[in-house]
């Protein structure tokens, strides 16, 4: 080991004590006796710094969640022209919601390239630019065009965070807690949506918008103190920076040089095996990984989660519970937060595959019960008393649907994309999957109401039920378990 690396590990600035005992003793007998045989150094890596780094990085996802949830609490205010005196019709209101997904779609692939060019940390910090620009356009808008541009720009920031934040958390985490840290992204998105719903109920439209606009500032201030990922530093040949980063994340007592050598070996192997993107997809494992990532994104968006959220107030009302739309949305948002948090606690113990399978299967059954309820309500002449007696069915179905989505199909598709691709195609493949997800979100957001009016409420949920059950079948036969496995082990499994 070179002298400069030794001095780095012993440097007080990274938390290793180098001070010597300079006290004077009158005799040898007075000097403290070192019992070396009884000294045991805990070399296990510290986890707390990794949790902090992941949480601060995914505050970008919390900011993205606020962008997604912003329209819901002030929907009626915008429609009645009470926000900046801008009057909008139903079609324009649909575009105000949809421009966010279009913005997210345009930024996923460029963000992947930017992460490889300037680093994961700097890319995340640069998100303040589109966040601040977009919210400023919304806050000072005097026309529908400015609202469109504001939503498009904040959507670009949200889409970029979907790539950069999971990539950052996957590269700073030791494999034993990689799943937990990876689930923080979806958890923070749900918290951001919940905060938007909650604050929107109690704040005036302008104060509410300012609150949402302040969240990215909090993210940048807190995340600015976190290190770059060791893997990116090694890619750029910055060994000392990589070691400092690892010491920050694992602690000074951990065998950081050994782990860094392991990361460096994996990167060298990746560089030596680097081929063109087209050639990379001649490998069976990469093709299967690509299919898995895209399929999970499809099942996530077409599971019906957006429809369930849209129908929350109607479902509560049909069940005889008199709640306004904002209160119903807050209840659903709270369920999402709690369930996603519980998922983060068990995902590294239970595994990804079983949670995905349970999620798809139970969501399919919950959607089936919701569809049957709407059939009884709209297509069958059923007594109002009987309908009222079974009013608990849609409530239970909705809550169950939201809970199982939040433990499986919600967080895991984003996480698994960073676990099944080899390093040479991870950035571009994950970005492409993210772009596909945002495109599907645009289709659902923009055209769901037309489909619902065309085929009926119950038929829509029957379709969602079939899609969710197909997701469970796909997971059972196609998706490998990635818990506690390296990329190489996952790739070997995909080659079979």
Give a description of the structure:
Helices cover 75% and strands 0% of the residues. It is mainly alpha-helical and 496 residues long. It has 2 domains: 45-226, Growth Hormone, Chain: A, CATH 1.20.1250; 277-496, Growth Hormone, Chain: A. Helix 5 (90-118) runs parallel beside helix 8, helix 5 (90-118) runs antiparallel to helix 23 (423-455) and helix 7 packs antiparallel against helix 8 (144-172).
Secondary structure blueprint with pairings:
Layout: H1 3-9, H2 48-57, H3 59-69, H4 75-79, H5 90-118, H6 120-126, H7 128-139, H8 144-172, H9 178-202, H10 205-223, H11 230-235, H12 239-250, H13 256-272, H14 277-280, H15 284-301, H16 305-310, H17 312-318, H18 325-350, H19 352-378, H20 384-389, H21 392-407, H22 412-420, H23 423-455, H24 457-478, H25 487-494
